[in-house]
Amino acid sequence: MALGLVSALGCGGDELSVREFAAKGNTICKADDRSAIGIQDQAPFTEFQAIPQLEDLIALAKEENSELEDLNEPERLSEPVAAYLAARSEAIALMQKGIDAASVVDFNSFERLQAELAQGEHARAKLADRVGLTACSRMIPPRFNSR
Question: For 128, which of 5, 7, 53, 137 could close a Cys bridge (C-beta 3.0–4.6 Å)?
C-alpha cells in the first residue's frame, strides 16, 4: 500500500511528463488549500491571536513544499520548479518572521511582513503557472475580525 502511494506521487520513479507533473502538483495544492481554509476558518482578533494559525499554515506549507519537491518533474522544468519552491520557502520565512514579530508585540513589523507576503503572492502564482501548477500559490494571509 505504501509503495503504491509513493509510486502514485511520482516519488523515486520515472520522470513525470509535464501533464502528469501538473496534475499531481495541482492535486497536492488543491488538497492543501482545503486544509488552509479550515485553518483560517476562525479569524483572529489580534496579531498575537494569529500566531497559532500562522504556525499551522507554516506546517502545511512546508508539507506541501516537501510533497511538491518529491514529484519527479520533467528535466526541462527543473529550474523553474526550483525557483517556484524557493519563492515558497521565502514566503514561509516571512510567515515565521510574522510569528516572531507578534510574539514580541511588534505589530508594526507584523503588519509590514503580512503586506510583504501578500505583495509576493502574484509573483509566486506566476512562477507556479509557469510550471503548470495553476492551483498553487493562491495564498491569502490571515484575515482578522474587526476590532
Answer: 137
